[in-house]
Structure formats: C-alpha cells, structure tokens
TrEMBL record:
<dbReference type="InterPro" id="IPR013525">
    <property type="entry name" value="ABC2_TM"/>
</dbReference>
<keyword id="KW-1133">Transmembrane helix</keyword>
<keyword id="KW-0812">Transmembrane</keyword>
<feature type="transmembrane region" description="Helical">
    <location>
        <begin position="27"/>
        <end position="44"/>
    </location>
</feature>
<dbReference type="GO" id="GO:0046677">
    <property type="term" value="P:response to antibiotic"/>
</dbReference>
<keyword id="KW-0472">Membrane</keyword>
<feature type="transmembrane region" description="Helical">
    <location>
        <begin position="64"/>
        <end position="82"/>
    </location>
</feature>
<dbReference type="InterPro" id="IPR000412">
    <property type="entry name" value="ABC_2_transport"/>
</dbReference>
<dbReference type="Pfam" id="PF01061">
    <property type="entry name" value="ABC2_membrane"/>
</dbReference>
<feature type="transmembrane region" description="Helical">
    <location>
        <begin position="171"/>
        <end position="190"/>
    </location>
</feature>
<feature type="transmembrane region" description="Helical">
    <location>
        <begin position="139"/>
        <end position="159"/>
    </location>
</feature>
<dbReference type="GO" id="GO:0043190">
    <property type="term" value="C:ATP-binding cassette (ABC) transporter complex"/>
</dbReference>
<protein>
    <submittedName>
        <fullName>ABC-2 type transport system permease protein</fullName>
    </submittedName>
</protein>
<feature type="domain" description="ABC-2 type transporter transmembrane">
    <location>
        <begin position="19"/>
        <end position="218"/>
    </location>
</feature>
<dbReference type="GO" id="GO:0140359">
    <property type="term" value="F:ABC-type transporter activity"/>
</dbReference>
<feature type="transmembrane region" description="Helical">
    <location>
        <begin position="103"/>
        <end position="127"/>
    </location>
</feature>
<keyword id="KW-0046">Antibiotic resistance</keyword>
C-alpha cells in the first residue's frame, strides 16, 4: 500500500466514476436504491401497532436506518470493488497518479453519499407519514450511522477480497445481510429472546448501530433496560458507550481483514 495521501479533487473524480458505473449497472442500482424502497413500504402495515412500547412503524423504521447500510454501503461496495478488480480497473487506477487512499476513499464516498440520501428520505418519511418526530438527539443518531458506515465499508473491502467474481458477489454478501436482518433487532425486538441469544445478537455488526440510533431517535434507553425509560442527552450518550465500543471493535477487525484479504488484481484460477 502506498502512503496515505488524500487530494479531495482526486477523491471526487473517483467518486464520480463510481456513480457512473453504478448507474450503468441496473442490478447493483436496484440493490442499492430499490430494495430500501421495498423495505420502507413494509412499515405501512405496522403503523399504529405497539411493538416494544413504541409505534411499530417507528421501531422498524429506525431499524431500517441502520439496515440500509447493508444495501447502500456494504453490498454496493462489494459489487463495485469485485467487478473493478476482475476487469482490471483497480489495477489501472493504481497505475495512475492516484494514491491507494484516494481510490478507496472515492468508492466509499459514493456509497456513503447514496446511503445519506436514503437515510434523510427515511427520516422525512417517518416524521411526515408515520407519526414520527425529529430525533431527540440528532448528533447521537448521526454518530451511530457514521460509525456503522465505517464498519460496513471495511467489511466490504474484506468480503470483496474473498469473492471470486462479480456474478458471485450477490451470494457472498448474503450471510452478513441475513445475519444483520435477523440478529440486530431490525424487524422485531430482541427482548423476548433468551439472555444468551440476546448477548450473542449484540455482537452482530449492525446491532450497535440500531441501539444507538433508537436511543438517539426516541430519547429512550434501547441498550440496557427493558421498558426503555426516557433518558436525557448526556445519559443517552452514556447508555451507548458499549455500542460505540462494539463499533470500534468491528471497524478495527474489518480493517484487519481488509488488509489481509483485499486484492487489487484479479484472482488467479
């Protein structure tokens, strides 16, 4: 790897290239932008239904704020990086004046910007059509989502390295996608599960994001206590110390795996 060097103009050029390639790949575009629309539509049937003490649409909607990271950041980047590696685009970019950091940062910027649009749209939907509210602590919500973006970006670089080709990219992401969907409390609360299962689910990389986002959105403790009592801003941050620690762990672990597995050139048969 070359020394870390970032020229904002160069990063934007790579991001623009990524956006163009995403627009041309209809399958990847639907995965990154179409699937979140389908998941947002799933909120309508549970609107007004109390789940875990709050409106079901808002509970699932705040879970989707985290889960959209899987589509827009993780799956999108795995597809882009694998396809670019196999058609030797990464190798050619690396032969230019661009640094490794600029090449990777441009791709991450595109995926993160796409996710930011989805997150803002979902927050507007929750507030305007689902009886929601402005987040009780928007800074805490933003910090949780930013940490989640960092985690899933590093995991994407790692998974792309073990993905043989672009056609199989849709399959290699499935274990993480389903693990996050079922184990992070996105669709249903985890409080009713046995204690050891709850503890195991907390280690799913999406779980800390969902806990932080719900705590910041509702102004209630969604980390430690059943019933989710109300918390102030300072107390909300204290409640989220463990989730932030888990995000730091996953970011470091993902970075370690990416350094070990990520490839710049096509895999040899």
């Amino acid at each position: 790897m070359s020394p870390i060097s970032l020229d904002p103009a160069a990063v934007l050029r790579v991001a623009r290239l990524d956006l163009t390639l995403l627009w041309r790949n209809r399958t990847a575009l639907f995965t990154a932008a179409g699937l979140p629309v389908l998941f947002a539509a799933m909120l309508v049937p549970v609107r007004g239904e109390k789940i875990d003490g709050v409106d079901g649409a808002l509970l699932q909607g705040t879970g989707h704020l985290g889960f959209f990271l899987v589509f827009a950041v993780f799956m999108n980047l795995v597809n882009i990086l694998t396809a670019r590696r196999e058609d030797r685009t990464l190798k050619r970019l690396r032969g230019t004046a661009l640094s490794d950091a600029e090449i990777t940062a441009g791709s991450v910027l595109t995926a993160t910007a796409l996710y930011a649009v989805q997150a803002v749209a979902l927050l507007v939907l929750l507030g305007a059509a689902m009886g929601g509210r402005v987040p009780a602590d928007p800074v805490l919500v933003l910090a949780g989502l930013a940490g989640g973006a960092a985690v899933f970006a590093t995991l994407a670089f790692a998974v792309s390295g073990i993905t043989p080709n672009a056609e199989l990219a849709q399959l290699t992401v499935l274990p993480i996608m389903f693990g996050c969907m079922l184990g992070a409390g996105v669709m249903f609360p985890l409080d009713g599960l046995p204690g050891w299962v709850q503890e195991a689910c907390r280690w799913v990389p999406l779980s800390p994001v969902v806990e932080i986002v719900r705590t910041g959105y509702f102004g209630q403790d969604f980390v430690h206590r059943p019933g989710h009592p109300s918390v102030g801003i300072a107390e909300g941050w204290l409640c989220c110390v463990r989730p932030f620690f888990l995000l730091a762990f996953w970011a470091a672990f993902g970075r370690l795996l990416a350094a070990r597995w990520f490839r710049w050139e096509p895999r040899r048969a």
